[in-house]
């Protein structure tokens, strides 16, 4: 068999981690392409930090091998691996100025003429005017940039980032997400970023691995994960999904299902499981894909759309859109987000409405999974 691993890919083969009888990471096969921005995303305790620490060499895997390109590094100590890690606590040296913090890795290697390289790094992270300040004179976001510059100064093959923005407030975190993305694009080094924040992963990463209970549930580009979740966990962890229990009426390239007497359609290609007539399917649709009309306007809905009748249970104005909760025999609490441009004074709690959406925007999940 030909090995298709590119020269600098990170490859985990059968990597697992046990702590006594507890399995933090189940055997995992994962290839992280060279030069990509890769996110390990999941709730607290799902094993993402453990996975990152195994790549860093800070944890010994219980099974499996880790390679960087052609080189197996499974048992190499951290300092012998061409990787570096940025932690949430910036861990800057408080008594050194920014220039010296960044220069540290070079000086430790015995390099004395550091100015050109450090200046380049300071430019990269846009801290030119702060070079001679001490860490405590910088904001949290600026300190985090110093930590990134310090980790990049020795040109690692892979930069590991463990919740690096976790200590920042929301606005700063958003700015730093874009900043880190820009830096990664500029330096072209593989970034592996651990986060529990789905929006952060979606904003920054080319590829996201969604972890749950020590396993990768799904791997893909952010839009692909959002549009085509393969499990209920992914459907609920990335954004909001309306999940409707249904029975399959007919299965072909187009699938028809029945939910409490209402027929809905979806393409078989958007199902994570092969639908079988008479079998069960969880049918999903994102709240922003749904349109809403008062019941008396049902005749205005184009043919071929999926339709559900219901009653508005609640509505909340959230700036750019209004969020409705709809009670329907088909599903007790359907969520719908409507852009405010379409706001309609008749859409108030208690109003009879019809929801409708394009069948192409419907996905199907295995109904035997529990809804998490
Ligand atoms: P968080 O976002 O909270 O850091 P995580 O997804 O990164 O969570 P890990 O830190 O990888 O999760 O931990 C995965 C599981 O392994 C958790 O249940 C954790 O309690 C357990 N664990 C981690 N380190 C150890 C250890 N040294 N000894 C025993 N159990 C551990």
TrEMBL record:
Reactions listed under catalytic activity: ATP + H2O + polyamine-[polyamine-binding protein]Side 1 = ADP + phosphate + polyamineSide 2 + [polyamine-binding protein]Side 1
Keywords recorded for this protein, A-Z: ATP-binding, Cell membrane, Membrane, Nucleotide-binding, Translocase, Transport
Annotated Pfam families: ABC_tran, TOBE_2
Gene Ontology terms, MF aspect: ATP binding
Domain ABC transporter span(s) in chain numbering: 10-238
Keyword Translocase found: yes
EC number, UniProt record: 7.6.2.11
SMART domains from the UniProt entry: AAA (SM00382)
Family matches, as InterPro entries: AAA+_ATPase (IPR003593), ABC_SmlMolc_Importer (IPR050093), ABC_transporter-like_ATP-bd (IPR003439), ABC_transporter-like_CS (IPR017871), Mo/tungstate-bd_C_term_dom (IPR008995), P-loop_NTPase (IPR027417), PotA-like (IPR005893), PotA_ATP-bd (IPR017879)
Highest taxon above the source species: Bacteria
Family: Belongs to the ABC transporter superfamily. Spermidine/putrescine importer (TC 3.A.1.11.1) family.
NCBIfam families referenced in this protein's UniProt entry, alphabetically: potA
Purpose: Part of the ABC transporter complex PotABCD involved in spermidine/putrescine import. Responsible for energy coupling to the transport system.
Oligomeric form and interacting partners: The complex is composed of two ATP-binding proteins (PotA), two transmembrane proteins (PotB and PotC) and a solute-binding protein (PotD).
Protein name per the record: Spermidine/putrescine import ATP-binding protein PotA
Source organism (scientific name): Streptomyces racemochromogenes
High-level lineage: Bacteria, Bacillati, Actinomycetota, Actinomycetes, Kitasatosporales
């Amino acid at each position: 068999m030909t090995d298709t691993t590119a020269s600098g890919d990170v490859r985990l083969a059968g990597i697992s981690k046990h702590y006594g009888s507890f399995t933090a990471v189940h055997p995992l096969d994962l290839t992280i392409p060279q030069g990509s921005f890769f996110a390990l995303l999941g709730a607290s305790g799902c094993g993402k930090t453990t996975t990152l620490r195994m790549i860093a060499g800070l944890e010994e895997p219980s099974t499996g091998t880790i390679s960087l390109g052609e080189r197996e590094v499974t048992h190499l100590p951290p300092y012998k691996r061409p990787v570096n890690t940025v932690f949430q606590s910036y861990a800057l040296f408080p008594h050194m100025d920014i220039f010296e913090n960044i220069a540290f890795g070079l000086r430790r290697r015995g390099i004395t003429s550091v100015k050109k390289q450090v200046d380049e790094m300071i430019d990269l992270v846009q801290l030119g005017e702060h070079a001679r300040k001490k860490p405590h004179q910088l904001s949290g976001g600026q300190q985090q940039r110093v930590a990134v510059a310090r980790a990049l100064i020795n040109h690692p093959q892979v930069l590991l980032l463990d919740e690096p923005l976790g200590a920042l407030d929301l606005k700063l975190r958003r700015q730093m997400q874009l900043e880190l993305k820009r830096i990664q694009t500029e330096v072209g080094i593989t970034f592996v970023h651990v986060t529990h924040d789905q929006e952060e992963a979606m904003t920054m990463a080319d590829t996201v691995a969604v972890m749950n209970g020590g396993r990768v549930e799904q791997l893909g580009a952010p839009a692909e994960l959002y549009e085509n979740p393969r499990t209920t966990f992914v459907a609920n962890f990335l954004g909001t999904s309306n999940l409707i229990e249904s029975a399959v009426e007919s299965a072909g390239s187009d699938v028809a299902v029945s939910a409490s007497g209402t027929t809905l359609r979806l393409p078989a290609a958007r199902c994570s499981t092969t639908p079988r007539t008479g079998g069960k399917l969880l049918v999903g649709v994102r709240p922003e894909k749904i349109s809403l009309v008062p019941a008396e306007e049902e005749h205005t809905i184009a043919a071929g759309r999926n339709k559900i009748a219901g009653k508005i249970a609640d509505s909340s104005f959230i700036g750019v859109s209004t969020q409705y909760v709809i009670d329907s025999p088909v599903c007790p609490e359907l969520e719908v987000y409507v852009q405010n441009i379409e706001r309609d004074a008749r859409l108030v709690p208690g109003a009879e409405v019809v929801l409708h959406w394009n069948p192409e925007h419907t996905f199907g999940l295995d109904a035997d999974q529990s809804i998490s």
